[in-house]
Amino acid sequence: MKQYLFQFIISSFYLFLIFPISADDMDIQTYQKIKEIIANPRHQEESEVYRERISKVTDVPLPYLIKIAQSNDNYVFIRARAIRLLELYQNPTSQSVLEATIEDTKENAHLRKLAFHTYSRFSKIDTNRQTQFIKKFESDKELGPVVKNTKKTNLNPKQNQIDPNKLKQMNRN
Predict the structure, then answer these.
(1) What own/partner pairs with CB < 8 Å and gap ≥ 24 does 23-31 have?
(2) How far apart, in Å, do the first and last CA atoms of the chain sit?
(3) Residue 87 has what DSSP assignment?
(4) Neighbour-count burial for 60-71, b at 16+ CB within 10 Å, e otherwise
(5) How far is 7 from 13, CA to CA, in rounded Å?
(6) Distance between alpha carbon 53 and the CA centroid of its chain, in Å?
(7) Cβ atoms of 67 and 33 closer than 8 Å
């Protein structure tokens, strides 16, 4: 546990040196426009629609989405949409934000679960690290059932995908 905490701290420090996120770097008007886009309660649209609308406001939406997702001043549904949209911007920074949200036991349970679902759909990260991180929450009272359900769905091969066990059997013959 100490090893993972140390790695997390070092990687977070490194990421913020590369991708600094500070209030000085953020344009308040851009922040408000992005928040308005994802706060529209009348429309629950696909992530790609939000991406298209947000891209008309800024070419670099990740710092704004992170700030919205982490801000306790925003409604839970707004923060939830921002967390869900992080899946569109898979990189070490968004990965660290999701990991921090998942680990924060004081955070809203719904947001933790949503962060977990978003994190588990990340395909552009180290799968071994992702698996080890997810395993830590098998016994968590809020996330444990979600982890088990995720494992079950990941066990079922997707269409047009070769099952690794069948591939091993075919190679033995």
Answers:
(1) 25/63, 26/63, 26/64, 26/67, 27/58, 30/57, 30/58, 30/64, 31/64, 31/67, 31/68
(2) 42
(3) G
(4) ebbbbbbbbbbe
(5) 10
(6) 20
(7) no
Distance separating alpha carbons of residues 30 and 32, to the nearest angstrom: 5
**Residue 127: predicted pLDDT:** 82
**With the C-alpha atoms ordered 115, 117, 121, 125, is the resulting torsion angle positive or negative?**
positive
Closest by CA to 38, choosing from 80, 98, 70, is 80
Residue with tokens 């953020």: 26
Distance of CA 137 to the CA centre of its chain: 15
Residue 115's identity, in one-letter code, is A
- Rounded distance between C-alpha atoms, residue 48 and residue 52, angstroms: 6
DSSP string, 42-75: T----HHHHHHHHHTT-S--HHHHHHHHH-TTS-
Three-state secondary structure call for residue 32: helix
Q: How many DSSP H helices and E strands does the chain contain? A: 10, 0
pLDDT digits (tens, 9 = 90+) for 50-76: 888 999 999 999 999 999 999 998 899
Q: pTM of the prediction?
A: 0.70
Q: What is the pLDDT of residues 71-113, one digit of tens each?
A: 998 899 999 999 999 999 999 999 999 999 999 999 999 999 9
Which of 117, 113, 118, 101 shows the shortest CA–CA distance to 141?
113
